[in-house]
Structures are given as structure tokens and as C-alpha cells.
Amino acid sequence: MSPRSARLARLSRSVTFSACHRLHSKSLSDEQNLQLFGKCNNPNGHGHNYKVTVTVRGEIDPVSGMVMNLTDLKEYMQEAIMEPLDHKNLDKDVPYFSEVVSTTENVAVFIWDNLQKLLPQGVLYKVEVHETEQNVVVYKGEETIVK
Asked: Which residue segment(s) compose the domain that 133 sits in?
């Protein structure tokens, strides 16, 4: 490969935020919610220290040597993740979750959608949300599966 050929790379950055939520679906009865979500359906909610890793991809710029300036990515993540979610009650403080169950899967989709509005088109590759050390969701923008 010649020095002028494009090189592709992935760049990741992580942040952590704290938030509380209650897993509860308006489509289910209180009994069904308790059966499905167990202790996570506690009416007073519960909290997590979430870790989010965002991965972007693109060509390595031959002049800067970067896929994206990390300072820019940090600012995008601040606006898309930290400002709306950090130290919030997801169900009460984030309008998106008033109608969507605040599972980690849906948190990942929320973050993806927010980042898509800020990042250059086609750059976002993956959003990884660690709810705990054992529970991780990876979302790559897949919308639906045709059944």
C-alpha cells in the first residue's frame, strides 16, 4: 500500500455518568412489571454508574494523522451523553424515557440518536453502554429486524 492510500481506523472514547431509573413498562400491569423486572421495578428506582464507550470510524487524515479530533469527540459526547443523562432520573428528567422503558438497550439507542445529530454523517460506528461490569449493551445503529 502506498503512503497516499487511505487508511481506515476506529477511534474510541469513554465517559462515565451516574443516573437512576425504574424498569417499568406502561404496557404491563404492576404485577407483570414486578414479575418481569424484579427488584429493578422498585417504585423508588435504583442507580448505576454507567460507562459509555463511543467508537467512530473513518480515514486517517494524512495531514493531522487523526480520524477525528478527540477534543471534538469529547465535546459531542458531553452534549449527547453527559448533559442529558448525568445525575438524572432517566424516567423523570429525560423526556425520551417518559414513553420508552429505560433499559440499557434503550439508553444505548438514545445515545446513538443524540450523537448522530452531532457527528459528521457515517462516522459513528458503535455505542457501548456498561450498566454494570457484567451487563453491557452494544448498539451499532441497527433499526429493526424484518420478521
From this structure: 11-139
